[in-house]
Every structure is written in structure tokens, then in C-alpha cells.
Write a structure and sequence with these properties.
By secondary structure, this protein is an alpha/beta fold. Helix content is 38%, strand content 13%. InterPro entries: ComF/GntX_DNA_util-trans, PRTase-like, PRTase_dom.
Length: 277
């Protein structure tokens, strides 16, 4: 089995990825640990055939048909500027110059990262794309996420990061899956933004147990010392990419590690955000 991790030069082309996914298909033990993935996978079993839209099953040349592409990406949703949690519209305080809204948790105890951009809530039907990417090595889903994250970034007032990194997988998990799904988003996103991407700056030094089974505090403890920085990040603005953001504990731990190593600013780019912690 080939393992793909470090630099962009080692990243396989889609044909190789596809071949690997055929030899090492859907890994049930991982799937059942991730809440919601099993249900989305069932929907996919009926839909995700070549030449069909990954969401509705209509004939389509691309990953999504024109109808789904137009329908599901433009969700008007007020989100916390820091953690991308969906907020009620009343959160926006119009009497202030700063129109960015923040959730109560981020105001009370700000996480280590500065900002988060998220495309949509983690729920049907878009969760199916995360499954496609994470368990079926369908790289087109990563590229679709990247394209929309780039558009979201262009619409924001956020400064561009100096370098973009994926949330790393632990070595055992990388070996089991054969690729890092966050890197499949990070690399095309960096290309679109004209920013360097580097999967070797941060690594996961501890194999943490599956986050979905833990409560918020346990999640924090679980990932507290999970990451290590090996590149020079001093004074730099780091863009961190992940496919799904749940509690934010993983991204908080990674940002904390980056800042301890001297990073000036951390911006998260996540495809899908769970509506509640
Ligand atoms: Zn469709
Ligand atoms: Zn927040």
C-alpha cells in the first residue's frame, strides 16, 4: 500500500488515488465511529455512480449536476467569525463598527485560531460529499470544496495566509486510509489562492481516539498534545484546512501548537461545520 503524506510532489495523481481506493475501499470500522457518515453512505450507495451527480443521481459530467451545484452552496447563514458556528440573525450588533458576529463561547473564551470560514452546515445532502472524499478517495469532492472555499475567501475581508496546511492525520490513520482528505482540499485551495501549501509543517504525533464518542471537555484533553510543528512558522499567518469541523477542539489544539511555535495568525478553512457542538 502506498502512503501519501508529506510534500505536494508526493501527492498522487487522481488515477493512482482511484486505484488505491479500489484496493482499499470503504473502511467500515472508521465509518461506524463517525456519526452520520453511515447514513450518508447509504444514500451514496444508490447514487454515486460514474456519470451521475453525487447528490441527486441525475446524469452529470461533473461531481454535481448544475441544479445541485446552484442549489446547495449558497446557504445564507450568519456564522461566528471565529468558529463558524451558525448564529441567529439577532447576534449581529448593528450599532458597532465591527459587523462580525461572534458566538458566546468565543467571546467568553476565545480559541487559539483567529478566524474560520465554513461553506455550509454538516448535514444532508452535502455531508455525502465529505463521505465521498474521506472514504472513497473521490478527489473531485476535495476540488469542489476548494473552489467554493476560495470564493468564500474572496468575498471575505480576511488577509491571505502565508502558507496553507492540512490538518494532519496520525501515521496509523494515514496508513489505514492511504491519503489525507484535508490535503485533497488544501492543495487545490492553495493553488486557487496563489499561496504555498505544505503538508510537512505540522504532524500528528499522537494517535487520538475518535472524537465523535467524546464530550467537549474530553475532546479537548484528547487532542491537547496531539500535534507537532516541524517547519518555521514564526511571524507567519497559517491557513489550516479540514473537511469537517465538529467541536473545534482539534483545530483549537492545532492553532495553539502553531502559535506556541510563533505563528502570528491562524485562519481555518473548513468545508462543513456541525451546527451544534
Ligand atoms: Zn444533482
Ligand atoms: Zn464562535
Amino acid at each position: 500500500m502506498r502512503v501519501f503524506s508529506a510534500s505536494s510532489r508526493q501527492f498522487p495523481d487522481p488515477v493512482v488515488m482511484k486505484a488505491d481506493s479500489i484496493r482499499f475501499p470503504f473502511r467500515t470500522p472508521v465509518a461506524v465511529r463517525v456519526r452520520g457518515f453511515a447514513a450518508a453512505a447509504q444514500r451514496l450507495a444508490a447514487l454515486a455512480l460514474p456519470g451521475q451527480c453525487a447528490l441527486c443521481g441525475n446524469l452529470s459530467q461533473g461531481l454535481l449536476c448544475g441544479g445541485c451545484d446552484a442549489q446547495y452552496w449558497n446557504e445564507p447563514r450568519l456564522r461566528c467569525a471565529t468558529c463558524a458556528l451558525p448564529l441567529a440573525a439577532s447576534y449581529l450588533r448593528r450599532d458597532r463598527d465591527d459587523t462580525r458576529a461572534h458566538c458566546a463561547a468565543c467571546l467568553e473564551s476565545p480559541p487559539a485560531f483567529n478566524d474560520t470560514l465554513a461553506l455550509a452546515d454538516y448535514r444532508a445532502p452535502l455531508d455525502a460529499l465529505a463521505v465521498e472524499l474521506k472514504f472513497r478517495a473521490r478527489l473531485a469532492a476535495g476540488e469542489t470544496f476548494a473552489r467554493h472555499l476560495h470564493a468564500l475567501f474572496e468575498d471575505s475581508d480576511l488577509p491571505a495566509p502565508d502558507v496553507i496546511v492540512p490538518v494532519p492525520l496520525s501515521r496509523p490513520r494515514l496508513v489505514a486510509r492511504g491519503y489525507n482528505q484535508a490535503w485533497a482540499i488544501a492543495r487545490p485551495l492553495a493553488r486557487l489562492m496563489g499561496v504555498r501549501s505544505d503538508a510537512s509543517i505540522v504532524s500528528r504525533v499522537r494517535h487520538t481516539s475518535a472524537q465523535s464518542r467524546l464530550d467537549q471537555e474530553a475532546r479537548r484533553r484528547n487532542v491537547a498534545s496531539a500535534f507537532a510543528v516541524s517547519g518555521d512558522v514564526r511571524g507567519r499567518h497559517i491557513g489550516v484546512v479540514d473537511d469537517v469541523m465538529t467541536s473545534g477542539a482539534t483545530l483549537d489544539a492545532l492553532a495553539r501548537t502553531l502559535k506556541l511555535a510563533g505563528a502570528r495568525r491562524v485562519t481555518n478553512f473548513v468545508a462543513l461545520r456541525t451546527p451544534k457542538d
